[in-house]
């Protein structure tokens, strides 16, 4: 099973998993391996990176339908959502917003070029077909380009787990008239493996608009989404392999206006495709790949009146090479180019091209020390050439203690929409925007105790200069007041804010085996995020605490209970604590039954002022493997 997932991840990650010299008989603990941090399989303890790995077993144990519901429990990660399932969901890493987070699904970058700041909306992405996730924290621009100032989310879909044909089925139903169905089929032999997953989710939901927590009599806002994902890899010879991966998703999600219970609808269609070829010769492995991401979305107001139509496309080509000069020195290098284009109804099309080259050295000068150094140059068609770099190191100080640190330089050029604005929504254009630059630094320590307990601590800081900020031109408009005047007749604007925006804090993660049957997971993040004037950045809590208890009562019964506590929120938002619980019963080797309860104590709270969250909700599910 582990070797199969290794091969699948190695074949489908765009920049994180290239052909990797491991025989079919090797046993690799994937929970201790990162494919993303150094663009090749690396032990997490030797990567020098802050990385979290989420497996399918983790997702099954938690039982959450939305992916962000699980990711929000991880150190350094916070999520805000405008309502429930299907509502716009933004993920932040160490206080850096979604425009600073690069998101990949099976190697396909899925950040939306037509969104205001080229960001990925997690609101319609379920856990149904996800097999593995890696979350990199800290600036990764030197490897992933300008969008990865805050971090990277790398998602791999479910693949084959054993030789021959395997199938899986998942059904779930529960509160808010929510229904989920997924079917998967996979095949694997000595040279070929492939997987296909289809899923459908439907929910009547609850009102996105909520004037105060627990407000009654509001119209629910639902979601209906269908998704197809697939991947495959064929080993032509011992040296050559070909593969592809892709997905197609449609969704209809209802939403409310800010401050009003409206009957709005967002229709969205997106698909992605990646093809690649691998060739190994001597001490070098080469990979060529091409990826396509295409998205269209249209918003409708009551009576079917269109409120905006957007189309976006990203076409990318990439080369990567890995040369092992010696057991102590490996070089990783490559080049890539991508063209992003968008069409906004009423404004016409626009596009930008970014081309880059990079080189990385992985050096082990002694058995207990690992160093990685990376440099990259990117040429942006609108803003010229930018240089980024990153140095990271990990020192195995003792058998159980790892000391690590990293420093990196990043940049982010203005997105197409930040320059174009949106007259329909009252956002003024700003063709004079300039790129922003940043420096990320961290130092951390990881310790593994003899009883199996683990603890990880990290101090971090991200400093951004000339940050691009959404601001208010007119009284009453959302956002801080713009520092400079803008065009007349508009309410909002994107402007560069002179000076340094700082995000700094502390992360703690721990796994504590309480007994042989019970395990306690702890995650805590302290974040202090401020703009150049010293004011706090919106929607970034100072304190984010997550506790989880996993219990294996016997061979058939397991349970989970989790608590999330957020405090020190901006805008006079009160602190809150939410408890979720679940129990799973293994009927036999091929089927499980599950029951989970979200918001166990029916806490009335809001993630964003004016937007609702779920009351106590129950979900019953069955999963089968055959």
CATH superfamily descriptor: TonB-dependent receptor, beta-barrel domain
- What gross morphology would you assign? globular
What does the main sheet amount to? 22 strands, antiparallel, barrel
Instruction: Quickly give the CATH architecture.
Output: Beta Barrel
CATH topology: Maltoporin, Chain A
CATH C-level class: Mainly Beta
Task: Please give the domain count.
Answer: 1
Structural class based on helices, strands and sheet pairing? mainly beta
Helix count equals: 6
Q: Strand content of the residues, in percent?
A: over 45%
N→C terminal distance: 15 Å
Q: Please tell me how large the radius of gyration is.
A: 23 Å
As an assembly, this protein is single chain
Residue stretches low in confidence (pLDDT < 50, at least 5 long) are 1-28
Arithmetic mean of pLDDT: 92
Number of strands: 31
> What helical percentage do the residues reach?
under 10%
Fill in the keyword field for this structure.
single chain, about 625 residues, mainly beta, Maltoporin, Chain A, 6 helices, 31 strands, disordered N terminus
Could you explain the architecture of this structure?
The chain is mainly beta. It has one domain: Beta Barrel (Maltoporin, Chain A). Helix content is 6%, strand content 57%. The chain contains 6 helices and 31 strands. The protein has helices at residues 2-12, 44-47, 56-62, 67-71, 141-144, 416-420, and strands at residues 33-34, 42-43, 50-55, 77-81, 89-93, 101-105, 108-109, 130-137, 151-157, 164-174, 178-188, 192-206, 221-235, 240-255, 264-281, 284-301, 305-326, 329-344, 348-366, 369-380, 384-396, 401-412, 436-448, 454-472, 492-513, 518-530, 543-552, 557-567, 576-588, 591-598, 617-625. The chain has a 22-stranded antiparallel β-barrel. Strands 3-8-9-6-7 form a 5-stranded mixed sheet. Strands 1-2 form a two-stranded antiparallel ribbon. Strand 19 and strand 20 (369-380) form a beta hairpin. Mean pLDDT is 92; it is low at 1-28.
